[in-house]
Amino acid sequence: MSFIIAIDGPAASGKGTIARALARHYGFHHLDTGLLYRATGARGGDPVRAARALTPEDLDRDDLRSAEAGQAASRIAAIPEVRAALVDFQHRFAAQEPGAVLDGRDIGTVICPDAQVKLYVTASDQVRAARRAAELGADPAEVLAQLRERDRRDSERATAPLKPSPDAVILDTSTLSIGDAIAAAMAEVERLLPR
Ligand SMILES: Nc1ncnc2c1ncn2[C@@H]1O[C@H](COP(=O)(O)OP(=O)(O)OP(=O)(O)O)[C@@H](O)[C@H]1O
Ligand SMILES: Nc1ccn([C@@H]2O[C@H](COP(=O)(O)O)[C@@H](O)[C@H]2O)c(=O)n1
After folding, report:
1. Are residues 179 and 109 in the same domain?
2. How far apart are CA 134 and CA 102, in angstroms?
3. Which residues take part in binding ATP (predicted)?
4. Of the bound ligands, which one is closest to the alpha carbon of residue 15?
């Protein structure tokens, strides 16, 4: 049986950074599930049709990391039929041996409720905005407003809202360096990894 690490959290909390490091360390497959929603939004047209037609190549587009693509993603992510169209791909990805790390908003709650490790990675709004602004070379105040709008939309939607699974370990990275955040996440995996 594949070993699944589910990592959820709000925008720019550092979940992708941790997910990539864990996948590299353990030799697991990694899926940034936000890319599915970003690529669906970037396809344009009817979002449900776009989600159903998504191919792995769509995830390689080089315009998916922009703030605009993030906003478009969070709008179409609130549509239940869009989410339903993306479930099978995520389940197949998670089933790969020897294990998989998926990061997103609903991995521990909806997509992989039986994941062996569940982390909810968070950080203060200001810290997240500063990190994302530095990454994009953007204005921190503008990024802060966008993050808050996206988090509100993601948390308040009716289907698969952003929230920690009751059995998730909460990891607040506000005052942690990247190395310390990865070490804290790895300590949790080590506790639960069968030997
Ligand atoms: N602990 C940390 N300390 C400082 N910078 C960090 C830390 N963790 C992540 N970062 C930086 O913050 C930015 C956002 O991190 P990352 O992309 O991992 O977040 P995310 O939660 O996956 O974002 P998204 O929701 O957009 O997918 C990146 O530039 C990353 O290098
Ligand atoms: N499991 C997920 C992952 C993402 N979303 C939505 O996509 C937007 C972009 O995600 P990033 O991780 O790339 O920032 C995000 O704001 C969510 O609306 C989702 O709904 N479920």
Report:
1. yes
2. 25
3. 9-17
4. 1
